[in-house]
Fold these 3 entries.
Entry 1:
Amino acid sequence: MLVFSMACYDGDDDSDGKKAAVRFQNASDDIVINYGIKLGGAAYVGSLSVGQYTGYYSTSPGSYSVQLRDGSGNWVTDSMGSFVVEDGHDYTVVLDGNINSYMYYLILDN
């Protein structure tokens, strides 16, 4: 199930008008993101269990790969491609599948 809501930004300076909002959703069958997930400058630090989603975090527009945070606090690239986020839009990065076969999707919320 995908959940949509209005964007609420994390307080980054948006004076240049070049920001996108990104949130993260765990729609997998059995995967827990233990330490955090990141796309560009939009980073959620914490655990994200099955069925949970985060608030929105702002990032500069660009092309980014999904990164996961390891137990030591390092960000490690976990996607084989990249997603493009454009300024003025809100997105949801969705983790789907199971521990043996999973994918990330980027959904344009608005």
Entry 2:
Amino acid sequence: MFNELSSESNDNVEVAANCMIELLSISKNDEKFQPIKNLIVQNVESILSCASVAISNSDAERAEQYSRIFSAIASSHISQIIATG
């Protein structure tokens, strides 16, 4: 997934984003998938870097996919976000 998101090709970026979003959704309610969520969160900086490049290149398609990922990450951590204020 991360390789596809960081590649210059748009061929599979939507598929990679969908996979990541689905994994976040599953891990939100099932503790056995916590390692997957941790892996995604640990790679937020690389995803953010890719999103910055997409925005700089006016690549709306890729930027939209990264935006969907960041929304899913925020949603999966909403209780932590609220708890830390």
Entry 3:
Amino acid sequence: MQPAAIKTMKAGSTQLFHIEIEPVSKTNGKPQRYRVRHDVRVLIKSTPRPELEACAILLASGCAGCLSVTHSAAPHMACMHVEIAAGAAHARELGRVP
């Protein structure tokens, strides 16, 4: 996905990128896997670490700032924020760079 296709907002001087994650597999003793969406587009089909891999993809696309993550299956408003460069660095440390 190209950076121009990523929905962004300016929060002060930090650019904010939003994704939504949704579970795509049951656990059954294995790590749960998630689909990552931006608007209606699928950014990642299946991953156990959606936030970190999304950071790596965004950083590789030239995006910098903060990633806002919501969970589609949460019964309440669940949201987290991840600094993109830090999340991408952690994904590299774990060997999970797409």
